[in-house]
Automatic annotation (TrEMBL):
Entries under InterPro entries matching the protein: 4pyrrol_Mease, 4pyrrol_Methylase_sf, 4pyrrole_Mease_sub1, 4pyrrole_Mease_sub2, CobA/CysG_C, Siro_Cobalamin_biosynth, Uropor_MeTrfase_CS
Name this polypeptide is given: uroporphyrinogen-III C-methyltransferase
Gene: cysG
Pathway(s) it belongs to: Porphyrin-containing compound metabolism; siroheme biosynthesis; precorrin-2 from uroporphyrinogen III: step 1/1
Gene Ontology molecular functions: lyase activity; oxidoreductase activity; uroporphyrin-III C-methyltransferase activity
Tetrapyrrole methylase domain: residues covered: 6-213
Family per similarity comment: Belongs to the precorrin methyltransferase family.
PANTHER family assigned: S-ADENOSYL-L-METHIONINE-DEPENDENT UROPORPHYRINOGEN III METHYLTRANSFERASE, CHLOROPLASTIC (PTHR45790:SF3), SIROHEME SYNTHASE-RELATED (PTHR45790)
Record keywords: Lyase, Methyltransferase, Oxidoreductase, Porphyrin biosynthesis, S-adenosyl-L-methionine, Transferase
Coiled-coil region(s): none
E.C. number(s) listed in UniProt: 2.1.1.107
GO biological process: methylation; siroheme biosynthetic process
Pfam families: TP_methylase
Lineage summary: Bacteria, Pseudomonadati, Pseudomonadota, Alphaproteobacteria, Sphingomonadales
CDD domains, per the entry: SUMT (cd11642)
Length: 252
């Protein structure tokens, strides 16, 4: 039997190939097999060698190319065949990327795993939109939550957002009405500033702002689609040159 290969869990960052780590770029360029998510930008996949085999395991709401268990099995199968596998994930593998599940199954199968972190979607989106997630004047706590999960209505989000706090919601576009209702029911003011960042770090990026109460209307009216992040907190209302430029463009 061949010596098992290594599974590399690699973060592709928020979208722009320039935001890859040097190690991630090197692994992509030298890989013979890349198993990638749908959120990995085409410009990043173009770094792969022409002879590399690329397998998409893209996930969309209610429609997955492969269930997670099958993805784990695929990675293990390829590694057992002696191949090094680059498992390429948008953002960071360990921030809502199910990298932990893939790592645990690989370890249980006796497969070596290496992890290359990436700029998380939250950090990349905030930087692209020039929103400081923490600020000495208004935010010293940051929380990350998933907006699509089982039992969303039963979860207690009280205290995650409010004065002095910033809340980042991943995968919240489809559940924006429930999110807004939930946060206000837990005591958050309807006029709390929010921002929705769509297609962060890509040429088609949009940053839309408003109060929490209009979040569902904003998502519907502007036809916001994934990938998008919702940022809730006073930091989203601070004036920056990027906000001024966006306002000027919107007025034209």
């Amino acid at each position: 039997m061949p010596k098992p290969g290594t599974i590399h869990l690699v973060g592709a960052g928020p979208g722009d190939a320039d935001l890859l780590t040097l190690r991630a770029a090197r692994l992509i360029e030298n890989a013979s097999l890349i198993v990638h998510d749908g959120l990995v930008d085409r410009s990043i996949l173009q770094l792969a060698h022409p002879d590399a085999r690329l397998i998409s395991v893209a996930k969309k709401r209610a429609r997955h190319t492969l269930p997670q268990e099958d993805i784990n099995a695929l990675l293990i199968h390829e590694a057992r065949a002696g191949r090094d596998v680059v498992r390429l994930k948008g953002g960071d593998p360990f921030v809502f990327g199910r990298g932990g599940e893939e790592m645990e199954d690989a370890h249980a199968a006796g497969i070596r795993v290496e992890v290359t972190p990436g700029i998380s979607a939250a950090n990349g989106a905030a930087a692209a939109a020039q929103i400081a997630l923490t600020h000495r004047d208004c935010a010293s706590i940051v929380s990350f939550v998933a907006g699509q999960c089982k039992g969303l209505a039963e979860q207690n989000w009280a205290g995650l957002a409010g004065t002095g706090r910033t809340l980042i919601i991943y995968m919240g576009v489809k559940t924006a009405p429930q999110i807004a209702e939930k946060l206000m029911a837990d005591g958050l003011a309807p006029d709390m500033p929010i921002a929705v960042i769509e297609n962060a770090a890509r040429p088609e990026m949009r940053v839309l702002r408003g109060p929490l109460a209009v979040l569902p209307e904003l998502v519907e009216r502007e036809r916001i689609v994934s990938p998008a992040l919702i940022v809730i907190g006073e930091v989203t209302a601070r004036k920056t040159p990027a906000m001024v430029q966006l306002a000027m463009e919107a007025a034209q």
